[in-house]
Amino acid sequence: MLNAILYLAAFALLLASYVKDKKKTRTALLKAWKSFENLLPQFLVILLVIGILLAAVSPETITLVLGQNTGWVGMGMAALIGSVTLIPGFVAFPLTAVLYENGGGLMQLAVFVSTLMGVGVVTLPVEMGIFGLRVSLARNFLNLLLAFGVAAIMGVVLT
After folding, report:
1. Strand runs labelled E in 13-153
2. Can you give the pTM of this predicted structure?
3. pLDDT of 63 higher than 90
4. Are 116 and 85 in contact (CB under 8 A)?
């Protein structure tokens, strides 16, 4: 229902824009289409990655490695995987949702997505070149601690 209301509002606003200034609306729609064309390959990558993951890894394996019953060991595995993986956010969040639907534990996936977005082992050399060794290591370590803190809070609040 909410989706229908949002689509209706977007269409009404688009129509109002078109009535007010046809040229600007056409220009905006062309820019939006170009953006969509530029993002389309990345969205296809999302579908491909999630498809390959689901084909290669069974829900039982996800539960075994990142399931709710894995506790701190599973959170550590999730932190390790998230820290060394380089995935953009628009891939990370749908991937995390799929992992959750296939047996991943809430706290484990909170650590996973938090380290995925905040801890960058792969990008550490570039980061050290910009910020220096001390700042880069401190930032990554603090983000690692924050990931476990977020997971603990989510575990208390949502379970």
Report:
1. none
2. 0.70
3. no
4. yes
